[in-house]
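Session log. Operator J.P. requested a structure for one protein chain; no other inputs attached. Running the standard single-chain path with token output.
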Amino acid sequence: MQKDKILVIGASGQIGVELTLALRKIYGNNNVVASDLREQNPLLEGTGPYVSLDVMNKEMLHVQVIRQNITQIYLLAAILSATGEKNPGLAWHLNMQGLLNVLDIAKEEKLHKVYWPSSIAVFGPTSPKQNCPQQTIIEPITVYGISKYAGEFWCNYYFQRFGVDVRSLRYPGLISYKSAPGGGTTDYAVEIFHDALEDKKYECFLREDTYLPMMYMPDAIRATIELMEAPAEKIKVRTSYNVSGMSFSPKEIGEEIKQHIPGFSISYKPDYRQAIADSWPQSIDDSVARKDWGWKEEFDLAAMTKDMFDNLGKTKG
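Structure written below.
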């Protein structure tokens, strides 16, 4: 049987770097082709093949899929929530057309699997705030959320109509020590660690009581790979699965950081991102993912905070 050959589009981004490295450990370095419009992330250099690729150029993408004998695509290229609000037309065009290009090629070349991430941004002010369920009222108010929700239905359509095995997760806010955040509303939860180490203080762009669903990057990478490796018959949701790791507020993460950096202080200066955060659920019900393919998080707030500081080279006890 032919070994799977994977193409990661958007490999230099926040998720892409760590997902590419994790996939290379499983499938072998040469069987995972990293690609991005940007320069290769330094963490990827020397670990496997890299091609410069624009997901909006369908012909170029198609040529690479054939040339590299690709059987799986992970499409991570996207414009995120906060950045998208500055240029809604571009965000919609990139997020939608990129997905449609990949789905079309997957159909034509009969690829084994496609992965495409959705987001909690699909939820809106009318969605339940607590334990937001898999199926509920979904009325997003950001162009990012609108594009993700539309994308979920395109994924479902290509599965139902053409049999494309496309799988998806609705990521919450993602926290990582390896790669920089990509312009999302939950970015404060990454920035706060760096500022705590450098300045012992942080000015947060959200209110202190803003609870949001979050996930530590190792859990997000594991969830992605577990979803993709699950037998097809276990995947009952072909739009996108709710997944979650934890929920906390800026005040709560600030208190947790003080356990490691006693002199740390946090102040608050909410900006336009507050309205985006207020439109999202405060916690997510991911029981369907747990039931269908056995999802379970490993990190809570305390474990994540300790691991972040351990890996960011904490010098103060």
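Operator note: Residues 119 and 289 are 15 Å apart (CA to CA).
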